[in-house]
Design a protein that fits this description.
The structure is a single chain. The strands form 2 sheets. Strands 1, 2, 3, 4, 5, 6 and 7 form a 7-stranded mixed sheet that branches. 37% of the residues lie in helices and 17% in strands. It is of the alpha/beta class. Strand 3 and strand 4 form a beta hairpin. It has 14 helices and 12 strands. It folds into 3 domains: 216 residues, Rossmann fold (3-Layer(aba) Sandwich); 68 residues, Helicase, Ruva Protein, domain 3, CATH 1.10.8; 76 residues, Roll (Ubiquitin-like (UB roll)).
């Protein structure tokens, strides 16, 4: 399952967002919701299910499908707060950083209203949120660079003396990040790195770390507390990075609770108040409605799609065993909806299903056109694919 880590300073609203993201299942009746651990929860990517094309109801092994919309589960981790100096062990130290290692992508949650100090305490004056973004993200890069450069001299001397490729040596050194030799080689080609590892310094380690966070573990920025942010901060933030998503975890959570209590009739920004409320609650709900209707605001229900599909470019692929009925070998229709990184090839998919299927790969079939596709063909979103393999 794809994992996304929520990182950020204390008090920016990570836990509030985590709750809003992982508990907004009220609209999905009877889903056996499981909190895996206190800080690990499930959220869903909503996507159109191909079942409508064959006119048969699918049988999802994971997640659900309601009225042709498939809810593909992903894991969200609420990572303990990150403060300046964390890469040197301050605050929670390396505990949160280990969670980053286990996440495919990172959502950096920050306070768009600027009312959190660098250490994560709530303050009354506003600080520039753009500066904050840089401080926290450089902390993560420093941590990664530090891991890469740890005991470098001994490592570099040994590696240079052997015939081993440098990218292979580095991939092994930072094996716990789950980054492949191929990925490191691609990154090393994007910029100049000395051929001999002995000639690398902390600067090279930092450049490589920066590339890793740009290309392999991308960081997507989410501006929380946008309900309390000034228009000038909102404009400054959108100019700084047009991919920033503006949200209010607190307003979303309040609306979810109101909906669960039948005080409002829907989670749409056009909800109606249907329950008994006092005038303070009436005003609060009006404010929430106004904020959620603002064109610059992203709704929590769309955030997973925005981050995973639009920003990270992941695709949803449906592997099946029969290219006509779109079933597996037990007669389940479209049982799996796999969320795969952009550029995943047909051969990668085969290995992802099972090593034996990857090793025995003969060809892949696009079940819509019934045509064979090459092993190096990158899969597209919503592809229904049959892998033909010798072991089958
Ligand atoms: N105005 C506003 N306050 C929020 C929002 N999200 C969280 N808060 C408040 O910020 C404080 C810290 O929230 P919390 O989720 O515990 O932050 P964490 O330390 O990052 O997990 C709490 O008082 C929340 O009520 C938001 O979207 N808007
Ligand atoms: Mg928290």
């Amino acid at each position: 399952m794809v994992r996304i880590g929520l990182i950020g300073k204390p008090n920016v609203g990570k836990s509030t967002l985590f709750s809003a993201l992982t508990k907004n299942m009220v609209e999905i009746a009877n889903y056996p919701f499981t909190t895996l651990k206190p800080n690990v929860g499930m959220a869903f990517l909503k996507t159109k299910c191909p079942e409508t094309e064959i006119g048969k109801k699918c049988n999802p092994r994971e997640g659900v499908c309601i009225e042709g919309i498939r809810y593909v589960p992903i894991e969200i981790i609420d990572v303990p707060g990150l403060i300046p100096g964390a890469s040197e062990g301050k605050g929670m130290g390396n505990a949160f950083l280990d969670n980053i290692r286990d996440s495919e992508a990172i959502i950096h949650v920050f306070d768009a209203s600027g009312k959190t100090s660098p250490e994560g305490t709530l303050i009354s004056e506003s600080r520039d949120p753009v500066e904050d973004i840089a401080t926290i993200e450089s902390e993560i890069t420093k941590w990664m660079a530090d891991r890469i450069f740890r005991d470098w001299e001994k490592f570099a001397r040994k590696s240079d003396a052997s015939a081993e490729r440098p990218e292979r040596a580095i991939a092994k050194k930072v094996a716990s990040f789950g980054i492949s030799e191929k990925q490191i080689a691609i990154l090393m080609n994007k910029d100049f790195f000395p051929g001999k590892l002995m000639n690398w310094g902390p600067e090279e380690a930092e450049r490589l770390a920066t590339l890793i966070f740009r290309e392999i573990k991308p960081i997507v920025r989410v501006a929380n507390k946008s309900d309390a942010a000034s228009q000038s901060f909102i404009s400054e933030l959108s100019r700084f990075d047009k991919r920033i998503q503006f949200i209010s975890g607190e307003f979303e959570l309040t609306l979810e609770k109101a909906f669960a209590a039948k005080v409002v009739d829907s989670l749409d920004s056009g909800f109606n108040v249907t329950g008994k409320v006092n005038s303070a609650q009436q005003n609060a709900l009006a404010m929430i409605r106004r904020f959620l209707s603002e064109p610059y605001v992203t709704r929590i229900s769309d955030i997973v799609f925005k981050v995973v599909r639009e920003i990270l470019g992941y695709v949803v692929v449906y592997p099946v065993v029969d290219e006509s009925s779109w079933e597996d070998n037990k007669g389940n229709i479209l049982p799996d909806a796999l969320l795969l990184p952009a550029g995943t090839t047909a051969l990668d998919l085969a290995f992802r299903i099972h090593t034996d299927i990857g090793e025995g790969f003969i060809r892949a079939i696009d079940c819509r056109t019934k045509r064979a596709i090459g092993k190096d063909h990158a899969l597209n979103d919503s592809d229904v694919i049959r892998i033909v393999s010798r072991t089958k």
